[in-house]
Structure formats: C-alpha cells, structure tokens
Amino acid sequence: MEWGIKLKRNHNVNKSGYSQLKHMLYLRLIGLAVIAFIIILALYTVLWRGRGGDEVVGFFQNVLKLDSDNAHNLYQQVFRNYLDMIWIAAVIIVFFVLLYIVLGWFTKYFDIVIRGIDELTSDSKEIQLPQEMATVERKLNAVKAELEKRAVEAQIAEQKKNDLVMYLAHDIRTPLTSVIGYLNLLDEAPDMPEEQRTKYIRIGIDKAYRLEKMVNEFFEITRYNMQQISICKDTIDLYYMLVQLSDELSPMLSKHGNTISLNADESITAYADPDKLARVFNNILKNAVAYSYPNTEITIAARKTDGSVVVSFENMGKTMPQDALRSVFDRFYRADDARSSNTGGTGLGLAIAKEIVDLHNGTITAESKDEHTIFKITLPDGT
What we know:
The chain has helices at residues 2-49, 52-63, 68-80, 83-118, 134-188, 194-225, 238-248, 250-256, 274-291, 322-327, 349-359; strands at 234-237, 259-264, 269-272, 297-305, 308-316, 363-369, 372-380.
C-alpha cells in the first residue's frame, strides 16, 4: 500500500513538473501570437488605412524619379492588385519567424539537459536546472547519485581485491616458509637424530596440509561466489547432526577447555543439503571455539518457528564491536587476536557459511553484547 502511494506521489510530482514546463511554453506561444497580431495590424493600419500609401508613392517619386501619375499606377499594380498574395506572404513570414523562435526555445532546453548530462560525471555537488525543468533536474540528480554510489562501490571492490592479494601473500607465505625451512634443515643435516628428524617431518607435513587446506578454501569461496554449487536438499535429522558435529570437534573443544550444551528437540528436522549445512555448522562452531573464553560453555539451540528452522550458536567471549559485526561475513575478515597464522583461519569460514545459507534462501546474522556472541541461522522449513 505504501509503495503504491509512493508511486502515485512520484507520478503527481512528474506531472506537476511537466505541466509547469508546458504552461511556460503555452504562455510564450500566446505572447508571440499577440505580438505577431499587433505587428500585422500595425502594418495594415499604417500602409493601407493610414498614410502608408502616400509614403510609398512619395518613395517611388523621389527614388525612381517618377511623376505622380506613374508613381500611383506603380503603387496600384504592385500593392493593390496583389493584396491577397502580400497578406499570404506576410502570414507565412510571421509563421516561420514564430516557428524559428519556438524551436529556439526547445533547443535551449535541449542544451540545458545536455549540460546537465555532462555534469553527471563532474565533481559538482548537485545539478541545477530552470524551475520549469524541476522533474528533469530530480531525475538527473538521482542518476548522478547512483553513479557516485557505484563509483564508491567500485573503489571498495578494488580495495578488497588489493586486500585479497595481500592476505593471500601473507597466509600462503607463512606455512610455505615453514615447509621450506624444515626441508632445508633435513637436507643440510643428513646425520640428524631420528627423533628430531621425525619431529621436523611431522611439522613440515602439518604445515603442508595447512597450506593445502587454505588453497582449497580459496577455490571453494570462489565457486560459492560464482554459484557453481548445486544444492541437493533432503530431510535431515537436525538433532543427530548437531550431536555428531559436537563429537567430531571434541578434541578442539577439550584443548580449549570448552563444553557444548545442546538445546533442541530430538525429533527436530530440517530440509536442506546435509553436507553443505554440516559445513555451515562446522565453520560457525569452530569460530565460536576460537573466540570464546577458555573453560566456558558453548550453547547450541534449534527450534522451529513460523515456518522456519532457527539454529543458534552462543559463546562467551570478548564483545565484538559493531564494525566487526558488519564485516564478520566478509571474505578474509579476521579479528586481530586471531590473525596469527598458527591459530587463525583463512578468514573464509564464515563467508563460506553465508554463501551456503544464501543458496538455501536462508539468512545468517550475528550479534554480540555483554561478552556473549550469537550466530543465528534461519532456514525455510521445506516440510
């Protein structure tokens, strides 16, 4: 209803603006017609009804050196005998003069619009046109604002691309440097004790696996972003999936001293791609462990409401500022305290989670206050 009212209001505004322009042109046309009528009436009064004829006869006598009779005869032959043609010629001349002036007015407005179009890419704050062209002015300023918005977005995208290159260089270089370093140690010390050699080999393998994982995630986020992933939905035992996820991450939880509390009905289900949804929950839970205080509880809750399935992950940790919450689903975003290459991820986990949720036509949000952070996933209930 509100949208319809807004459309009607915009239509009335446009109509009002164009009406003002039409009224201006009508008034000018009427003014020209009045002026043309006055000119023709003056000529008729002076030349035919007044002493205009005597002036013409006198002109013939003085310039052409004719006597009075010949001058009157010439005046009669030239003017009186061709009165209708002279009036038609006068009307045609007045018409074309009027048309020329009117076209001049129209082309003036075209020139004004062209100047306004030229200002679309200028640094001027606002395009200003005559009052009768207020509607065109509003349209041009709207286009100018949209172009400026897109320019800013393009600049931000370029900055993100530069950040991507920087993050790639940083994240890939660190494990790669470790792999090269340990391989050099092994190559330079062939008589290294077996226990130390085994240790270095294990560290090198771990770093190589981490590097492989990072490269795979870089490719994966690109695939999700290009929507090359197909979704195969099925009915999922959501409770069992969350229990299984908790068990799989128990080593990470134990290392950090965290525990999981699951609040969900054992019969709750969801209609989604099981592998993709498990990836979402896995990424969010890993993030919760990374940013929670040690020896604290992480709460997972699942419920159905209003035709949707809502799953939330709540952990206790440092409160996230609002600017961080706005960027938490951006690619390669990581908080400062998780920037370490040893403990921090690639900054793609939550971005991938959002891409998957979007492919399910769902939503994912984050909120943080009073040292509690909650990630909430809402999916359509396909059942």
